[in-house]
Amino acid sequence: MELTSLTLKEALEGLENKKFSSVELVKSHISRIKKFNKKINAFVTICEEEALKQAREADKLIAKKAKNALLGIPIALKDNWVTKGVKSTAASKVLDNYVPQYDATAIVRLKAAGAIIIGKTNLDAWGHGSSGEHSDYGNTLNPWDYSRVTGGSSSGSGAAVSAGMALVGTGTDTGGSIRQPAAFCNVVGLKPTYGRVSRYGIIAMASSTDSIGHLTKTVWDSARVLSVTAGFDPMDATTGKNEVPDYEEILRGKISGLKIGIPKEYFGKGTDEIVADACHKALKVLEDLGCKLVNISLPHTKYAYPVYAVIQTSEVSSNLLRYDGVRYGNERKMFGDEAKRRIMMGTHSLSSGYADKYYHQSLKGRTLIIRDFMEAYKKVDVIACPVWPFLPFKFDERAIDPLKMYLSDVFTAPANVSGNPSLSVPAGFSRDKLPIGIQFMGPNYSEDLLYKVAYAYEQETKWYLEKPKLKE
Amino acid sequence: MNKYKPVIGLEIHVELKTKSKMFCGCPAVFFGKKPNTQTCPVCLGLPGALPVPNRKAIDWTILIGKALNCKINEVSKFDRKHYFYPDLPKGYQISQYDEPIAIDGSLKLKIKNEKLKIEEKTFRITRVHLEEDTGKLLHVGADTLVDFNRSGVPLVEVVTEPDFDNADDVKRFLEELQVIIRYLGVSDADMEKGSMRLEPNISVRKLEVGSWELEERKKPQTSNHKPQTFLPKYKVEVKNINSFRFVKQAIEYEVERQIGILEKGETPMQETRGFDDKKGITYGQRSKEEAHDYRYFPEPDIPPMTFSKKYIEGIEVPELPNQKVERYLKLGLRYSNAFTLTRNKKLNDLFEETTSKIKVQDKIQVTDIANLLINKREFANLSSEELYRKLKELKSPKQFDEKLLDTTINQLIGVNKKAVEDYKKGKENAIMFLVGQVMGEMKGKADAKTVISKLKAQMSNPNLKSKN
Amino acid sequence: MKKKTLLSVENVEHIADLAKLTLTQDEQKKYKEQLRRIFDYIDQISKLKTKKVIETSHPTNITNIFREDKIDESKILTQEEALSNAVKKKNGYFVVKAIF
């Protein structure tokens, strides 16, 4: 049995049934990392020694029949998740020597559930990117085609899970940064409701749109992780007090009768035919399962990206002011090109004489976009649409033009503006075996519903069984 | 006649004495602690840290606002104020911009004007808002050292309208504000220790000759009417006034300096100046003209706050100094005594506690307590029980040794045969001579009435021997 | 009045100054061009009908989240921890280039 081909669910079952040990599980993942990471560059830091130590501890607990949600499971953390005692760089030279003095709340919860941290994954520095081409530690290659991007900013986590280097890769989604690599890497990516998972200890990008989530091989795997990380945190005043439902129980429920909205603005000229096709095929599967497809409109869609860009860069410009090289990190001149550009975009949007035109106008635009979604959810239960307007692209294809790159986010940014949850699941491949993803969006705190729809679709199509053939 | 009129507005910061800091659970008391030992990811501005506001600090800000007769906003929020300085770890300060907790208040003060008459002046409070303090800088040689123990301590900012036109009023206002804050128990408000800080904004207006304002001055002041005024086009902020005793000096120096410039027909530069207390001068720091572009925007990490009418009403303002003064005047105290007794909370608490002990039979008046406390400052350190006992002692019939008194009376009657004879002959006054003698012997430890009655008794009945 | 955003080099210099970024001459030119293009694209938001629309600064409906006035020992860092990533430190203090 190839341990690195297992899903999280299968690994948990295998550990419980003593088919293998946690040490064996972790060792197999570390070997895989050592074999392929030089090429793929999914990891910034590998925690081999500590991971094996924890695996031995986990095995002792398993022997005592201890039960825990993620006991003995190797997970990878995006390198903008502040990890106590482990270098956390946000993939930027500014923090290349920063060793945090505390753990993010989400990490505390994952550790408490028995998870083992196998390493810190690469990302577009500070989360600034949609392709994975803006890390100060080099590009992460798409395991499905090394000449193409993984999608970003959670590029390393997407590649790591896809390439069998970790069973879970955590992420952050500010404008699409979990869903985009998920779609390009044939894995499941959850952007939870804003405030569902604590942001305490996650290096802030845009405070009002950062959503803390994860990438996994399957929908059930994703639900298991969310049940650990979700919930109110007194250290984060923006977390919701909503109860955490039993996601795993709910996702097995029947979906017939569910209304799925198809927003016309996402299926227009700008969307490649092959992507639109894959989505329509997916929707047909759901229709056959009893769902009702409803055509809807989200009229302010074309303004969602510029509204997002202003709010995000404004908050970025503010959140990055603390990096002055005094208490930690290197000087500000070490910021990369993309970071500098976004800082300036945001500073300009907030500056005297421009703040009304850009920042305040965008906050109003946000209200209109939220209304679009609220109106839509009166008619449908979930909304389905593509994640990207196109297939995984080659390196430098879009990076040469910043604006072109930013426009990759047009389908993902709206959910960040509204704060609604969205789940990206594999929806097939192109002729060249390039992954395509479909996303399901829902009203706030409807992750259970999204899982239900996605699970039903996943079980019918089982795209996750396809694995990339890795070259060293 | 004065051609110039100072126009002064105040920005006062008050450090709240909460147990914990404004946005984290670090101790808010930092005095005397080793540097950087009271910090956490939040107040140190570490990557990923998030602020969560201290409810008590918010309640106390509402309290201060109410004490200053402000309107408490039913919706309020925090905003980010951006600027770079090494003592500001996040590169922005969490403060309040357009929706502060309290607005539109006032403070009425009874002030002696130039004619030495007491007039009531009203100073308007623009706003009272809440923010966080910065770390502290220490300059040592070529280095600047930073200690973040103070970073994140709650700070209330009180801003007044430019209603002041002289330094004495400013000092009086500050003193009253200090007493109020101390009465509320929310801060030590100590200028020397930095828990109360003043930054006056000072300009000077040139009064046009022949203007109605100059005319107004000739008429007797009949009302508190504040005439419409135009504000000068510049203002100078003065920082670093570290003690009450420098307030007057700093303001007066700056006003003179500005007048000097205006006399030359020039306009003083809009800027921030520091006060050098050793030289007694203000000096230029950085230009307020190229003002910081603070790029205020709502703090996304902290949800907005809403206060119901009931919640605001529930925050009760205790009796304030000026209300106490009114009450004391009705009880018969002189104004100056009433004023003195309200300047210090400890003294006032003692006064109030002691007056509450008054029993009719003890025949002690409120004014007695007041007089004693004011004239004998050493008594201010007593407890209210001890003080009340002292008062009873001073008022009540003197305790004395009755045996000793009888013996003394016997003796003196024996020795002063002539006085006794005179009394028996009908000279009533002679008894007073004897009383004097007795009192002298008893060293005052007897009361006159008892002495007189015993003398009379003895003299009328020589067989009444002392009970040995 | 719809005005095209004309970002000049002075603008870019000012923005960089506010953000404490030092740019080379070449970078100033580059960013001027890029920012111009980007804000030309963003300018379409002025077409949004927002006259009577309120601003949404928080995407949730949450209000009134506070902490009680208590000391949380568990989060306090030791002096060593606080200084552990400092570039320059001295006697328990962080060191910065002298001000004034």
Helix and strand string of chain B, N-terminal first?
Answer: EHEEEEEEEEEHEHEHEEEEHHHHHHHHHH
Fraction in beta strands of chain C: 5-15%
Helix and strand pattern of chain C: HHHEE
Cα distance spanning the termini of chain C = 45 Å
Q: What is the overall number of helices of chain B?
A: 14
Q: Radius of gyration of chain B in whole Å, from Cα? A: 32 Å
What would you call the structural class of chain C? mainly alpha
| Estimated helix fraction of chain C | 25-40%
What is the average of the pLDDT values of chain B?
A: 89
- Which descriptor suits the 3D outline of chain B? elongated
Mean pLDDT of chain C: 91
Largest interface between protein chains, with number of residues from each side: A-C, 59 and 48 residues
Radius of gyration of chain C, in Å, reads: 23 Å
Which stretches of chain C are poorly predicted, pLDDT < 50 over at least 5 residues? none
Strand order of the largest sheet of chain C: 1-2
Major sheet details of chain C: 2 strands, antiparallel
Oligomer: heterotrimer
Characterize the structure shown:
The complex is a heterotrimer of chains A (472), B (468) and C (100). Chain A has a single domain, classed as Alpha-Beta Complex (Amidase signature (AS) enzymes). Chain A contains 15 helices and 13 strands. Chain A has helices at 8-16, 22-40, 48-63, 105-112, 155-162, 179-185, 219-229, 247-250, 273-288, 301-319, 337-350, 356-379, 402-406, 413-418, 447-461, and strands at 43-46, 74-78, 116-121, 141-142, 145-149, 168-173, 188-191, 211-216, 259-263, 292-296, 382-386, 422-429, 435-441. In chain A, strands 1-3-2-6-8-7-12-13-11-9-10 form an eleven-stranded mixed β-sheet, sandwiched between helices. Chain A has a two-stranded antiparallel sheet with strand order 4-5. In chain A, helix 2 (22-40) packs antiparallel against helix 3, helix 10 packs across helix 11 and helix 10 (301-319) crosses helix 12. The longest helix of chain A has 24 residues, at 356-379. The model of chain A has no long low-confidence stretch (mean pLDDT 97). Chain B is α+β, with helices and mostly antiparallel strands. Chain B contains 14 helices and 16 strands. In chain B, the strands form four sheets. In chain B, strands 2-6-7-10-1-11-12-13-14 form a nine-stranded mixed β-sheet. Chain B has a three-stranded antiparallel β-sheet with strand order 5-4-15, with no helix packed on it. In chain B, helix 11 packs across helix 14 (448-460) and helix 12 (417-424) packs antiparallel against helix 13. Chain C has helices spanning 9-18, 25-42, 79-83, and strands spanning 89-90, 93-97. Chain C is mostly helical and 100 residues long. Chains in contact: A-B, A-C, B-C. At the A-C interface, helix 10, helix 11, helix 12 and helix 13 of A face helix 1 and helix 2 of C. Chain A: Heterotrimer of A, B and C subunits.
